[in-house]
Amino acid sequence: MKTKLEDTGLEDQPNFDILPRISAERLSTVTSQQQQIPTEFNKVLVIGLGQLGLPVAKYVREIGYDAYGYDISPTAMNIAERASIKKAINFREFDVYILCVSTHKPGDLFSPQIDGLLSVVEKLSFEAKNGALLSIESTIPKGTSKKVFEMLHHRLHVVHAPHRWYAAEEKEHGINQPRVIGGVCDCCLIGGMQFYGGATYRYPSDNNNNNNNNNNNNNNNKMSLGIPMHPVTEIEIAEVTKVIENAHRYLQIAFAEELYLYCQANNINFPELRDALNTKWNVNILEPREGVGGHCLPKDTKMFLQSSKSVRSKIILAATEVDKDYRIYRQTRAQTDLGI
Ligand SMILES: NC(=O)c1ccc[n+]([C@@H]2O[C@H](COP(=O)([O-])OP(=O)(O)OC[C@H]3O[C@@H](n4cnc5c(N)ncnc54)[C@H](O)[C@@H]3O)[C@@H](O)[C@H]2O)c1
After folding, report:
1. Ligand 1 within 6 A of 78 CB?
2. In this structure, are residues 3 and 318 in contact, taking their beta carbons and an 8 Å threshold?
């Protein structure tokens, strides 16, 4: 394989494995203290009002919560205010904080960086209300949620509910769609489930009480977002679920690109081959189009590659190489068509 790690830009990324870890002992102490589990939520603040945060804030408002927003960009804030999202003057007195800030380097959409998110958490560590719920909906590298939890000293409950929102199909794949959620402690997860799903969710180990039916009529008719959530026992599973979903999509596109190049080299009609292949019940070859698009797929795929030092996905590294070859092919063909 030609791709070297240094060519992928992976090695200059932060090493999240060295983030302080919460020892099992400390976690159990904190859990046994049984931070009060929030049961009722009224004031909700969405921080980061971009492509994801704005529809999240609108949805929260439509459900009936007292919805506030905050963004460092005055433009984003103005757009949100025009959509009746109230501007938060500070971070005090909210029951829920939803983080939807960007998680890439300021000048490089394809490289992960969580400095902005951590600066928000720093501010929350001083201002946020005791026992409130903090939900990270931004896509984050493995280890981030526990880092956030440590910064807050469990003064807030921390869950990660990564988003699957898809701008091109907002109706089918918008805010309310099946999603994964993890909590740093069990009490965090219970609070998160109450806010998102309204389910009478209890401890993951307590099979008898684990009645996760995501029904708004549960939980004494308390308001919830009514989103079908899939809880996981370790928050790292929620963190890597999101980046692996996108790495999987990257792989599917790269395979289509490779097949396309194969067809060009062997004088085979790609659309006809694709149609023929897709007649089989378990085959779904995509169209390669412009190659791997947007910034989330490359950024999140990098997060996946960075999430393990010992076992790095060879197949994903090969896919990044295929995507490069496909782009070079398209560029060369475009230049030839223009007679350059
Ligand atoms: N857009 C999507 O389709 C989508 C889908 C799933 C997940 N995500 C994830 O959600 C997160 C946000 O993505 P997006 O597409 O909305 O990005 P975006 O760039 O459209 O919006 C991010 C917003 O966060 C604001 N922001 C950045 N730092 C801030 C800070 N310190 N304080 C307050 N506001 C801050 C920015 O001004 C911007 O308005 C990313 O982690 C992304 O990977 C996005």
Report:
1. no
2. yes
State both tokens at 237.
């599973």
Q: Which amino acid is at 190?
A: I
Query: Which contacts of 81-88 are long-range, i.e. CB under 8 A and separated by 24 or more positions?
Result: 83/54, 83/57, 83/58, 85/46, 85/49, 85/54, 85/57, 85/58, 85/61, 88/45
**272 residue type, one letter:** E
Strands 86-87 and 104-105: unpaired
pLDDT digits (tens, 9 = 90+) for 161-210: 999 999 999 999 999 999 999 999 999 999 999 999 865 444 444 444 44
Pocket lining: 49 vs ligand 1, CB cutoff 6 Å: yes
With a 6 Å cutoff on the Cβ, whether 165 touches ligand 1 is yes
pTM: 0.86
User: Which one of 46, 71, 102, 135 would you pick to mutate in the ligand 1 pocket, going by the greatest count of ligand atoms within 8 A of its CB?
Assistant: 102
Of 45, 46, 68, 100, which is best to mutate to test ligand 1, by the most ligand atoms within 8 angstroms of its C-beta? 100
Q: Which residue matches tokens 């394989």?
A: 1
Per-residue pLDDT of 282-313, as tens digits, reads 999 999 999 998 889 999 999 999 998 888 89
Alpha-carbon span 218 to 212, nearest angstrom = 10
